[in-house]
Amino acid sequence: MANKTILQAINEALDQSMEKDKSVVVYGEDVGYEGGVFRTTAGLQKKYGEERVFDTPIAEAAIVGSAVGMAINGMKPVVEMQFSGFSLPAYNQIVTHVARFRNRSRGKYHLPMVVRMPYGGGVKALEHHSESLETLYAHIPGLKLVIPSTPYDAKGLMIAAINDPDPVIFMEPKRIYRAFKQEVPDEIYEVPIGKAKVVKPGKDITIIAWGALVREVQKAVKMTDDIDAEIIDLRTISPIDQDTIVNSVKKTGRVLIVHEAVKSFGPAAELISIINEKAFVYLEAAPKRLTGFDVTIPLPKGENHFIITPEQIAYEIKQIMAFKA
Amino acid sequence: MLFDDFNPLKGEILKILDEKGKVVNDKLLPKIPKATLLKMYKTMVLGRVADEKALQFQRQGRMLTYAPNIGQEAAQVGPMAALKDEDWLVLAFREFNAMLYKGVTLEQAFLYWYGNEMGSHYDDNVKVLPINVPIGSQINHAAGIAYASKIQKKDEVAIVFIGDGGTSHGEFHEGVNFSATYDLPVIIVIQNNQYAISTPRHKVIKSKTLAQKAIAYDIPGIQVDGNDPLAMYVAVEAARERAVKGEGPTIIEAVTYRIGPHTTSDNPKLYREDSEVEEWKKKDPIIRFKQYLIDNKMWSDKEDEKLHKDHKKFVLDTFKGVENSGEVPLEDIFKYTYEKMTPNLEEQMEYYKNVSKKVGEQ
Question: Residue A234, exposed/middle/buried by CB under 10 A (0-12, 13-18, 19+)?
């Protein structure tokens, strides 16, 4: 057991999976020799050789399309999209093939593969380096979408994703890649996909978040310590863990959903629909979402308007608590 | 090496049988066992008969949209005969004859066009990927399969088919580049049937030949008479040899012609002259192959008559079975989305079961 960052935890998950299972291959742009632009795959090529860990052409469709073929022919590819904003050239492959091969072939073929992509804003990046595109992937039947918020979960979820018989989109909150350390077991372990985590139990209000926003919610909750908030880290966006959410809202009657993805048709819309369908009579206040605006995420000089702060979250918590029907 | 002798920039095209079935290149005539030659021929005739019947069924309202292969049988069967059982077939969508040769059953092939996913659930040992509708995207699947073959040291190759239209797609470039970069055992067969639906290839592709695109990737590219099954065999045999030696992919442009429509939803009379079609009908791959077999005492008109009759009956019987295959069970539209149905999917399926019962009782 040692303290590790999310980045180190993901690296360790890849390393240990490759060591254990010869069919795991890791590749993408700058992933091999350099170890990735964030160094998530550092050291792997040296350890496992250039055949299993390699640099590819700048060709996202080929990266994901070849992973389809590899998975069909006995491998477990873990490929990287350098930034989620650059996953779009591969979107055709992901939507028309990755998500569909099992159904299309009625189970003759299935694709045990992982598409990793750093995502999210707050890192003062160039255009196309800050998007939160959860909806694009969560909307597609046949895909799973996983987002860790802690080093422990990052390692366990990555190992679970690699072992999963179905394709997993693995979004990595790059803003907190190195933000903090946590004790992470040295051995191999899985965190189950499809299960949300109650980060902090509480009885007054349910707050749902994932990725980098979980920490912001935790900070906000500390600012409002007269309110007993329950924090849920969704962890898997698809398939969604309805039970954990619905049970929590039935208990608290109030809910705030926080995500950086833009508002309209975003994940919060889906969550609130589930809550309305399954916990409507338990609600004591209108469900609320605090999200990115429906704009292109601004370049660094305007990003401060867009990035959600703990203060903003704390304000919304108080508003919901003050709600009177 | 074969590929050095046919420069795609100079319009040099590999031919072995002429339109009358006479051998025009003795030196390259492949030594194919009689049983294989007959399997090739019989598959081509089955493909032809099945295509013609499918078009009829469609007109009778018994078949959905269908994409016939008439005229392109040799471009598909020649390559498959040159491969081994362990090799992979990665499809576009107009490779009916290649599928049949590789072990997809007629029933499965029809079932797909009849609107049932089970038509893509081929038997366990059949290394064929399902029909791939998004144009051009299958090249990368073949590249990945081949990478996996290479890393697992399996002595196998992936053959991938694409149309002339598909070569315009960005993924064609990505896939060929990827395959060439890692010297992957991939064989790319471009079925140049002259049209992308209604658009003639010269209107949308500047290159004189499609085979010449290989030059940019530093791999061999060759134009082959796609209506000549023996020429297609020879080209793919040589490409396979390169592939298993670790020398990388090859592009083979099969110059052929789509005698029929793009699909049954298309009317080719709107965009091409009957005279052009008639000219290409004279180059029919089945006519020349049959003559070659007869000239070499491997086949007779009498056997041919019987083969057509038998195939016709087989096609009719098979299609009747397909027509009686019924609707897809409700569970099936849910249960192949993931290995295990998610709680969400279970809930949606149960909802529909209950509600459809109640709606029915109204």
Answer: buried
> CA nearest A67: which of A101, A115, A22, A134?
A115
Structure tokens at A268: 């919060």
Whole-number pLDDT of residue A324:
83
**What domain range includes position B345?**
329-362
Q: Are B101 and B81 in contact (CB under 8 A)?
A: yes
Please determine, for residue A325, whether its predicted confidence score (pLDDT) is greater than 90.
no
| pLDDT, tens only, A5-30 | 999 999 999 999 999 999 999 999 99
Q: What is the per-residue pLDDT across A160-184, written as a single tens digit (0 to 9) for each?
A: 999 999 999 999 999 999 999 999 9
Residues of B in contact with A68 (CB under 8 A): 140-141, 144
The domain containing residue A242 runs over which residues? 197-321
User: Any residues with CB less than 8 A from the CB of B350 and at least 6 apart, and which?
Assistant: none
Nearest Cα of chain A lies from the Cα of B55 at a distance, in angstroms, of 24
- Are A30 and A59 members of one domain? yes
Question: Cα–Cα distance between A104 and A100 in angstroms, integer?
Answer: 6
Q: Which of A71, A75, A213 is CA-nearest to residue A148?
A: A213
Say yes or no: B67 and B153 in one domain. Answer: yes
Residues A216, A153, single domain; the answer is no
User: Would the CB atoms of B148 and A62 count as touching at under 8 Å?
Assistant: no
CA A102 from chain centre, in angstroms, equals 23
DSSP H or E stretch at residue B315 = helix B301-323
Option in A25, A67, A92 nearest B137 (CB):
A92
Q: What is the pLDDT of residue A101?
A: 98
Rg (CA), chain A: 19
pTM of the model: 0.97
> What value does the mean pLDDT take over residues B325-350?
97
Residue B360 has pLDDT above 90, yes or no: no
Q: What is the mean pLDDT of residues A51-74?
A: 98
Distance CA B85, CA A270 (A): 48
Same domain, B224 and B345: no
pLDDT digits (tens, 9 = 90+) for B54-71: 999 999 999 999 999 999
Task: Please tell me which of the candidates A69, A92, A105 has its beta carbon nearest to residue B148.
Answer: A69
Q: Are both B242 and B362 inside the same structural domain?
A: no
Q: Are A289 and A268 in contact (CB under 8 A)?
A: yes
pLDDT band for B357, please (50, 70, 90 cuts).
confident
Single-letter amino acid, residue A41: T
Sign (positive or negative) of CA dihedral B35, B40, B44, B50? positive
For residue A189, count other CB atoms closer than 10 A to its CB.
14
Look at B129 and A72 and tell me if their CB atoms are within 8 Å: yes
- Which among B117, B129, B331 is the top mutation candidate for probing chain A, defined by the most A β-carbons within 10 Å of its own β-carbon? B129
Angle value at C-alpha B265, between B260 and B266, nearest 5 degrees: 50
Secondary element (H or E) of residue B159? strand B158-163
Report yes or no: A115 and A82 within 8 Å, Cβ to Cβ: no
Euclidean distance between CA atoms B199 and B326, whole angstroms: 37
State what percent of residues in chain A have pLDDT above 70.
100
Q: pLDDT band for position B290 (50/70/90)?
A: very high
Interface test with A, best of B90, B141, B184, B339 (most A CBs within 10 A): B141
